[in-house]
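quick q for whoever's on today - can somebody do inverse folding on this one?? i tried earlier but teh output was garbage lol. tokens:
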């Protein structure tokens, strides 16, 4: 095995460990030392791969986005429903994302810019999805641009409710109900 492959595998293991530690402790409570310990490195060894905690956070967020990636223009509301079902099978990832999102609303948080940009892109993408399926007006009379933030809010809001009380909140079912309200019926 080449040194480059070993280095890529080590980076992947560090990102996975960071996801776990952030899910358990939140970003502010997560330390590089805890991540390093989880992968059998010293903190100095970890810094060889990720020179700062912020660099590691960006790698974690980018990795999560890669898992959910669908080629541009390929999203449809039925695929969104499948994504919600998929998320219901990976509570640790959803918890990490939700914790980071919540923390990122504070001034100076290293993920604030990432989430601000991500939400702008997601809203635009959801408007394109809605326009492709419904045209300029949904059956409820709203435009895709007016509906897109609501769609994103429902997806994220359901995640928070589900994380807090998974036995009482059927996240995939509730999302399908929302699609019905949009006119998916």
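ok took a stab at it. sequence:
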């Amino acid at each position: 095995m080449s040194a480059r492959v070993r280095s890529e595998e080590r980076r992947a293991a560090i990102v996975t460990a960071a996801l776990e530690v952030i899910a358990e402790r939140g970003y502010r409570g997560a330390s590089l030392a805890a991540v390093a310990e989880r992968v059998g490195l010293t903190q100095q060894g970890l810094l060889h791969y990720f020179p700062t905690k912020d660099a590691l956070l960006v790698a974690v967020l980018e990795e999560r986005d890669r898992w959910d990636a669908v080629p541009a223009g390929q999203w449809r509301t039925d695929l969104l429903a499948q994504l919600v079902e998929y998320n219901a099978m990976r509570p640790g990832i959803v918890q990490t994302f939700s914790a980071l999102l919540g923390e990122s609303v504070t001034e100076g948080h290293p993920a604030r810019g990432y989430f601000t940009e991500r939400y702008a892109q997601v809203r635009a993408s959801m408007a394109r999805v809605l326009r492709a399926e419904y045209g300029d007006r949904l059956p409820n009379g709203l435009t895709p641009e007016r509906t897109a933030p609501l769609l994103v809010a429902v997806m994220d809001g359901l995640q928070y409710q589900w994380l807090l009380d998974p036995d009482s909140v059927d996240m995939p079912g509730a999302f399908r109900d929302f699609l019905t309200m949009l006119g998916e019926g």
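fwiw The two ends are 53 Å apart (CA to CA). also The chain has nine helices and no strands. so keep that in mind when u check it
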